[in-house]
Specification:
The protein contains 7 helices and 12 strands. It is of the alpha+beta class. Among the domains are: about 110-165, no CATH class; about 180-345, Beta Barrel (L,D-transpeptidase catalytic domain-like), CATH 2.40.440.
């Protein structure tokens, strides 16, 4: 009995102990709320009050616009993976350069015009007949030699072009007024009359090579110097080194003469070859006593540019007079000739 009472008493005392602080705290909280005043109005209430005040003062107040929800941000497409790098195309080999077309004759060229132009410039072409023949080829070759063109003997584009602008060659020597000039580097002969070039003829002179004839070895040269024509023969003459047509000797056995072969460069044993197409015309003008200048070759001193009317002469062996020969057509005879001097001294 006493224990029960004691337990109840203990429970009541604990409850009182818990309630006393609460009773004290409640009035205190109530006093704090009273001092703080009423709770503030909400944001919407404030806006309404302000609007009402402005309206009361007469100020135009725009209607409130309902806030629109923000537009959603555009969706960016997913980045595509970078395309795989394509391998560079294999470099193609450069096309092999095409060879330039070989120079050749111009088709449908006005041959008669070419012939007339060459004649006006002093080049022999034979008859002006509009025919591409051997004489015209030699005339073209002489022109190409003088002008420094390819020695083709053809009417090619370069030759046609130069023909329109070229001028007549000028003699290198002024006296005597009529003479012959053998230009070794260009392989032409200038026939000079009255101080000007009457004709330009292609030639082939000594090839500067060693040769042996009749037991003697010597070099095939056409020596530089000043000479005079001192002996002439008519018709064909055979010599150990070749056949000569109407030779006109000016330096021992070296002569102007007609030849069937007149290459574009030096090829003789020392003589000055003239194409057969022009051989008679040339021989008729190569008179005894005519002055001959040879220059530009590998042998001997070049003559001086000026000699006046009586140039110094290179020494020449005294030759016996040749028998007069009848004029013959330029055809090589079958039998041997009697040109003893040409045979001994190496014509051709």
């Amino acid at each position: 009995m006493n224990g029960f009472v004691w337990t109840k008493a203990t429970t009541i005392m604990v409850s009182l102990a818990l309630l006393i602080p609460v009773a004290v705290a409640v009035p205190t909280l109530a006093s704090s709320f009273a001092a703080a005043g009423p709770p503030p109005a909400s944001h919407e209430s404030v806006e309404v009050d302000v609007t009402q005040e402005r309206s009361a003062e007469g100020e135009q107040v725009p209607e409130a616009v309902e806030a629109q929800p923000a537009a959603p941000a555009p969706v960016q497409p997913l980045a595509q993976p970078a395309a795989a790098a394509q391998p560079a195309a294999a470099a193609q080999p450069a096309a092999a350069p095409q060879p330039a077309p070989a120079p050749g004759p111009v088709q449908n060229a006005n041959i008669a015009h070419v012939e007339n132009r060459l004649v006006a410039l002093s080049y022999l072409v034979g008859e002006v007949d509009g025919v591409m023949d051997g004489a015209l080829k030699h005339g073209l070759t002489a022109f190409q030699k003088v002008e420094g063109l390819n020695r083709t003997g053809e009417i090619d584009a370069a030759t046609l072009s130069r023909l329109e602008t070229a001028t007549r060659p000028q003699p290198r020597f002024s006296g005597p007024p009529s003479h012959f000039e053998v230009d070794i580097p260009r392989q032409v002969v200038f026939v000079v009359e009255n101080g000007g070039v009457l004709a330009t003829v292609p030639t082939s002179t000594g090839n500067n090579e060693l040769f042996t004839s009749q037991g003697y070895t010597r070099r095939a040269v056409t020596p530089n110097g000043t000479y005079r024509i001192d002996r002439k023969l008519q018709g064909w003459r055979h010599a150990p080194l070749g056949s000569l047509y109407r030779p006109s000797y000016f330096n021992g056995g070296i002569a102007f003469h007609g030849a069937r072969s007149v290459p574009t460069g030096p090829a003789s044993h020392g003589c000055v070859r003239v194409p057969m197409q022009f051989a008679d015309w040339f021989a008729d003008r190569a008179t005894i006593g005519s002055t001959v200048y040879v220059y530009g070759g590998p042998s001997g001193e070049n003559p001086q540019p000026e000699f006046g009317q009586d140039p110094p002469l290179a020494a020449a062996a005294s030759q016996p007079a040749a028998a007069s020969q009848p004029a013959v057509a330029p055809a090589e005879p079958a039998g041997p000739g009697n040109d003893l001097l040409g045979g001994l001294l190496g014509g051709g």
